[in-house]
Structure formats: structure tokens, C-alpha cells
Design brief:
With 245 residues, this protein is an alpha+beta fold. Helix content is 13%, strand content 29%.
């Protein structure tokens, strides 16, 4: 499944949430690529917009094009190495909000389903117990609506499309999802209602734990909750005990 038409939002051009001499955090809108695609017409991305002002900016993780929310960037190579190591060792924690179709039976829980690329239907992913990679997501229902529910999601692993496939596997796909929802669930929203609201990481210079939050446009009641609501969540490992970048 290739991108048929790419019309990314242009306002605001870039929404910077936090910045210092080492890192930059931007709020990526839904519909904008994280990095340029292979074709020239897919060059526009959050990275390509930032590099106009910050020529040394480095991508350390990505969001799906249709997912909105926080993206963390490094301003120099030393910061890039530090942050990429944190993602590699799962030292970062992220919290997402999503609107899903229907009402999950359990108000909270963990989805533990291995995922693998669905190659004939790229870029879709699928559950595969034989060859899939381990994938876990914690979820919590925070609001019941007439036909939908708002869920708070904490991915323990970071597989491609993990949250989207895990919610579909529960029988409650994220609304507006062109890959994993259909019928009323797809038509309910003009966008994928999935938002990366909160990100915790160790600052590459001070090595102090830092948490950044950005509001959710489709659920205004979203709040900063990463260490308050998800239990049990293991403590973040001691960054200072890891091999130096």
C-alpha cells in the first residue's frame, strides 16, 4: 500500500515544544512524515522543515505519518549517540492517547502479541506467534463515549504500528486508521486519532530524567501521567551504569 497523495499540513510550519543547546522537541502534526520519503514529492517532513533552521539536527526516533505528537531531536552528534542508546536500551517512556472504536471490556491491561511485517500488504504489520517479535503495550480506558472510548497507551516495546495493531487485535481499532479500521470506525474521523503526548528520557548533557508533555487536540482532558497511572511499570534503568555512548 503506497502513499497515493501527500498533502501535509502547513500551519503551523513547525511547533517547537522545548529547545536547548543539545536537544529539540517538536509537536508533529498528523499527516506529516517524520523524515523524507524516497520520492522527491515526499521530501517535506518534520526533519526537513527543522533542518532549514538547524542544519545539524539529527532524528533519533520516528512517528508514523498519521500519528501526531512529540518527536525528540538531537542538535549534535554527541546528543544523538546518547539519545539513540536510550531508545535502544528502552530507557525512554512514551505515553499516547487514542480514540478507539467500541468499548473495551477490561478497563486496563496489557496486550502481549508478537508482530511481524505483513509483506504482501506493506507497510501493514500483523500478529504472528511463530516469527513475530515480542511486543507489549499497557493500556487504560480513561473515558467512555457513545460509540468510542479514549485509551491511554504505554508501549513497552517499540514495534512499527504496534499500538494500531494491538488495539485492532483487542477488537477496538483506532478510529480513522486507514490500515487497521474499516466501515464506521474508519469514517468516524478524518485523521488517525493517535497522539504521542508524553516522553520521558535522560537529558544527554545533564543525564537528569526529563519529562515533556504536549496536549492532545482530539482529547483536551489529556494530562501528564506517565509514572502515576501505569503500574506496574519498572523504574527506568540507571543511565550512568550503561556503557558510555
Amino acid at each position: 500500500m503506497a502513499m497515493t497523495e501527500y498533502n501535509p499540513p502547513r500551519e503551523p510550519w513547525v511547533d517547537i515544544v522545548f529547545e536547548d543547546q543539545h536537544i529539540l522537541v517538536a509537536n508533529k502534526p498528523s499527516g506529516l512524515l517524520s523524515v523524507p520519503g524516497r520520492l522527491a514529492e515526499h521530501y517535506d517532513s518534520i526533519w526537513s522543515r527543522l533542518v532549514e533552521t538547524y542544519p545539524d539536527i539529527q532524528v533519533v526516533h520516528r512517528l508514523d505519518m498519521d500519528t501526531s505528537g512529540l518527536m525528540l531531536f538531537a542538535k549534535h552528534k554527541e546528543a544523538e549517540r546518547s539519545l539513540k542508546k536510550q531508545f535502544q536500551y528502552r530507557l525512554t517512556h512514551k505515553v499516547y492517547y487514542a480514540r478507539v472504536w467500541g468499548h473495551p471490556e477490561q478497563q486496563s491491561g496489557q496486550v502481549d502479541l508478537p508482530l511481524i511485517g505483513d509483506w504482501p500488504n506493506r507497510p501493514k504489520q500483523k500478529v504472528c506467534y511463530q516469527d513475530g517479535k515480542p511486543s507489549q503495550t499497557l493500556y487504560q480506558v480513561v473515558k467512555q463515549e457513545e460509540k468510542t472510548a479514549i485509551v491511554r497507551l504505554l508501549p513497552i516495546t517499540g514495534r512499527s504500528h504496534q499500538l494500531r495493531v494491538h488495539m485492532q487485535a483487542l477488537g477496538h481499532p483506532i478510529v480513522g486508521d486507514e490500515f487497521y479500521s474499516e466501515g464506521e470506525a474508519f469514517e468516524f474521523s478524518e485523521r488517525l486519532e493517535l497522539h504521542a503526548a508524553e516522553l520521558s528520557f535522560y537529558h544527554p548533557d545533564s543525564e537528569l530524567l526529563q519529562t515533556i508533555f504536549v496536549p492532545c487536540d482530539f482529547y483536551l482532558e489529556a494530562d501528564s501521567v506517565i509514572f502515576n497511572y501505569f503500574n506496574p511499570v519498572k523504574e527506568l534503568p540507571d543511565y550512568k551504569k550503561l556503557p558510555r555512548p
